[in-house]
Specification:
Structural class of chain B: mainly alpha
Largest interface: A-B, 46 and 49 residues
CATH class of the largest domain in chain A: Alpha Beta
Organism (chain A): Bradyrhizobium agreste
Distance between the termini of chain B: 34 Å
CATH class of chain B: Mainly Alpha
Number of domains of chain A: 2
Protein name (chain A): Extracellular solute-binding protein
Main location (chain A): periplasm
Radius of gyration of chain B: 28 Å
Radius of gyration of chain A: 25 Å
Oligomer: heterodimer
Strand content of chain B: under 5%
CATH architecture of the largest domain in chain A: 3-Layer(aba) Sandwich
CATH topology of the largest domain in chain A: D-Maltodextrin-Binding Protein, domain 2
CATH superfamily of the largest domain in chain A: Periplasmic binding protein-like II
CATH topology of chain B: MetI-like fold
Number of strands of chain A: 13
CATH architecture of chain B: Orthogonal Bundle
Largest sheet of chain B: none
Number of helices of chain A: 19
Number of helices of chain B: 13
Shape of chain B: globular
Keywords (chain A): Periplasm, Signal, Transport
Structural class of chain A: alpha/beta
Helix content of chain B: over 70%
Order of helices and strands of chain B: HHHHHHHHHHHHH
Number of strands of chain B: 0
Family (chain A): Belongs to the bacterial solute-binding protein 1 family.
Chain lengths: 452, 321
């Protein structure tokens, strides 16, 4: 047996006890000054928000701290934080699809009373953003966020290439019409095929860049832009959660086939797992003629010295045979229910909702959802992509925002990627399996799912 | 056993009687056994808190319907439903097959290449230390770095790997994608894992080779045994336990491989390279199906634990021979 007589001195015991207290008993060292932590994704608009937030600090004396996480781990990181009732974020700009779960799980503070008290009216915001980012249940007057960053999928194209006489004449000779930004998906495919493999300025270029990412939400956020316009819906509007023959209708299957054809015919090699950043890289490096991406990136692209300015053009997601929609992006700003600084967080939202702040937000590179900003007569001329943004916000559709959205999303990621990229089965089979997956998820959630 | 001896203060000359009695009381207050427990207790508490308790809790959760994205729903006891769901799910079986293929091919290649490298490095030659260090470099890198680094190397348009293949085969470099094609992606993850971990197998084999006494080879030389005969009769049999150990370590590691594959392919294209660890991560931390993922984790744990036990018994038998 070892002997520890040295430990028997009261001094040693006191030292050990103090050390243990230090390890296990330490709480927050001292009261902190006024500070708010805002959580969001790490991307261009976040930098604009940091700039904007300096005004809030000047006015209120509250320091703003930011926790920005790359998109690829944004959902994982913050949903984990919310799920574990963490106190990292006081304010969160959460994805639109989180709203159902955040409301049902009480992760966000309900803002109705606050809006009433501060006279913030949701009628002052673009309707699609209110439904998409704030309301749960959808289309009910229950608000959990203030629309913060309006966004949708749009397209950029190489205006300088499109305007070259030799390219225009070659296109006209082949297709019998002028080369112009496409208005339908058939036109888009023609343009993409035309550019695919063409040599421009001694460099081989490709037709189009589309989302194909497997891990998070990429391919779903891409394919839905085609699916909506071919007739796909999430469920029967008259019978909620009835998905059979709606999700997997023959029209929807044709839309999925089209996306695969576009991927096969007209994208650059190796774009098998590509999302926002890969699209930006492909466009900035002069590799593609047209790029699908979120409007949020367009201010940055417009400023790009190599492909921005006069060289870049923008167009709205093209129409399909059965409709004209585009995928909603964007987020609302919410107060985290576990925050110890809810009053300060609400003060930030009150400040952020002011028309002057929203105007500056748009000027700095954020996308305001306030009607006073986007409906202003000079708005369409305020940026090269403003008219397309405005039009897009009028035709947006969003993915499920149910509490189980993550399961629904990952199921769709798998089925669509399996078909489009991995050549597994047919489009119809992929959508049939998707209905099966989604039915199972909703049943687990306790929803009644009608088969027809 | 080390004994820490400190002069007992009761023995110190010149210490007064009341002081001696106080010291004696303190001695009686904290026995050696108590002090020993004081030292061990934090470790045991930590072990219980971060290993045993979560394990027990996970077992409990595996019998429930808990989904953290819907934690407002009442928690239901579902018996063996999660286990039945998993074991009757074709997708899970497919993921297990994918994992098994990855484990078998990557470990086989690592053993062959690692053993070959060990045989080469075991000889004395000029620059021996330099080459040993170079060979060991990949295993010193973080899997995240390896994943990103190979993603760039394998990029069809700018990655040097495709150009290298193109040089030897004449196939245009951008006509194939190592991580994006169903036929190539499974081999790509095997290739990258082998590149990273064959040096580890080499190290273990090298230890085995260095443990063979020289006099055995000297005796074989006297008996005029050829180099080939020496390899088959001495080198290989005497390094088999080391090889088996390497197989055990690598198989367990590769069975739970996640980071490198997730970075290289995200389990794609489609679900072609979705190893069971990726399925588990998606179920637990993306879909938030806590009950289901707990059951899957238990199934995987039992599988690895069972297989490893059988293997260790076989290894012990080989050692005894």
């Amino acid at each position: 047996m070892r002997t520890f007589n040295w430990l028997r001195s009261s001094t040693a015991t006191t030292v050990l006890g103090t050390a243990l207290l230090g390890i296990f008993g330490g709480g927050e060292a001292a009261a902190q000054g006024k500070q708010l932590t805002l959580c969001w994704a790490a991307w261009d608009p976040a930098n604009a928000l940091v700039e904007l937030g300096k005004d809030f600090t000047k006015q209120s004396g509250i320091e703003m701290k930011y926790e920005f996480v790359p998109w690829t781990s944004y959902a994982d990181r913050f949903l984990n934080e919310l799920n574990s009732h963490g106190k990292l974020c006081d304010l969160i700009i959460g994805d639109s699809q989180w709203i159902g779960g955040a409301a049902e799980n009480k992760w966000y503070v309900k803002l109705n009373d606050f809006f009433d008290k501060e006279k913030i009216s949701m009628d002052d915001f673009v309707p699609a953003t209110v439904v998409g980012y704030s309301q749960w249940p959808k289309n009910s007057p229950n608000y959990w966020a203030l629309p913060a960053m309006a966004d949708a999928v749009g397209w950029t194209y190489r205006k300088d290439w499109f305007s070259r006489p030799e390219i225009q004449s070659a296109f006209k000779a082949k297709y019998g019409r002028d080369l112009a930004p496409p208005k339908t998906y058939d036109e888009l495919k023609q343009v993409a095929e035309f550019f695919q493999g063409r040599e421009i300025d001694g460099k081989k270029v490709y037709g189009a860049y589309i989302f194909t990412e497997r891990g998070s939400e990429g391919i779903t956020m891409g394919v839905t832009n085609v699916l909506y316009n071919y007739g796909f819906s999430y469920d029967n509007p008259k019978k909620p959660y009835q998905m059979q023959s709606v999700v997997n209708s023959s029209e929807a299957a044709k839309g999925l086939e089209f996306y695969k054809e576009l991927y096969k015919c007209c994208t650059a090699p190796g774009m098998t797992n590509a999302y926002m950043q890969e699209g930006l890289d492909a466009f900035k490096s002069g590799q593609v003629a047209m790029q699908m991406n979120w409007f949020a990136f367009f201010p940055g692209l417009y400023k790009d010295p190599n492909v921005g300015g006069d060289k870049i053009g923008f167009f709205v997601n093209p129409a399909g045979p059965n409709g004209h929609f585009t995928q909603l992006g964007g987020q609302g700003i919410s107060v985290v229910a576990t925050s110890d600084r809810k009053d300060d967080a609400l003060a930030y939202i009150k400040w952020f909702a002011q028309p002057a702040v929203q105007q500056k937000w748009w000027q700095l590179g954020g996308y305001s959802a306030l009607k006073a900003v986007v409906d202003a007569p000079d708005f369409p001329k305020s940026a090269a992509f403003a008219p397309q943004f405005l039009e897009s916000m009028g035709i947006v559709k969003d993915f499920w925002a149910e509490p189980s959205y993550a399961q629904l999303l990952l199921d769709m990621q798998k089925r669509v990627h399996d078909y489009v990229v991995a050549d597994k089965g047919t489009a119809q089979q992929a959508l049939d399996l998707l209905v099966k997956d989604w039915t199972k998820v909703f049943k687990e959630q306790g929803k009644q799912v009608a088969s027809q | 056993m080390t004994t820490i001896l400190q002069p007992d203060d009761t023995m110190i000359p010149g210490v007064s009687e009341p002081a001696k009695s106080r010291a004696t009381r303190r001695v009686r207050g904290l026995s050696d056994r108590t002090i020993a427990w004081l030292f061990v207790a934090p470790t045991i508490a930590l072990l219980l808190a971060i290993n045993i308790f979560p394990l027990v809790w996970m077992i409990r959760l595996s019998f429930t319907s808990l989904n953290l994205s819907m934690s407002y729903l009442p928690l239901r006891f579902v018996g063996l439903d999660n286990f039945t769901d998993i074991l009757t799910d074709e997708d899970v079986w497919f993921r297990l097959q994918t994992t098994a293929q990855f484990v078998i091919w990557s470990v086989a290649l690592q053993v062959v290449i690692g053993y070959g490298l060990a045989l080469l490095i075991n000889r004395q030659f000029r620059g021996h230390s330099f080459w040993t260090t170079i060979i060991l470099l990949p295993m010193m890198l973080s899997p995240a770095v390896v994943g990103n680094f190979w993603t760039l190397l394998l990029q069809p348009q700018i990655g040097p790997f495709n150009y290298l293949i193109s040089m030897f085969t004449g196939v245009p470099p951008s006509s194939f994608s190592m991580t994006g094609q169903v036929s190539l992606a499974p081999w790509t993850i095997v290739l990258v894992d082998t590149w990273m971990w064959a040096p580890y197998v080499m190290l273990i084999c090298l230890a085995g080779l260095r443990s063979i006494p020289d006099y055995i080879y000297e005796a074989a030389e006297v008996d005029r045994a050829s180099a080939w005969r020496q390899f088959w009769s001495i080198t290989l049999p005497m390094t088999v336990p080391f090889l088996m150990l390497a197989v055990l370590f690598r198989a367990i590691e590769n069975f739970k491989m996640f980071d490198m594959v997730n970075l290289l392919t995200s389990g794609g294209p489609g679900s072609t390279t979705e190893l069971v660890s990726i399925t588990l991560k998606r179920a637990a931390f993306e879909k938030w199906r806590t009950g289901y993922s707990s059951a899957l984790a238990i199934i995987l744990f039992v599988t690895v634990f069972g297989a490893a036990n059988i293997y260790v018994k076989a290894l012990n038998k080989v050692k005894q021979r």
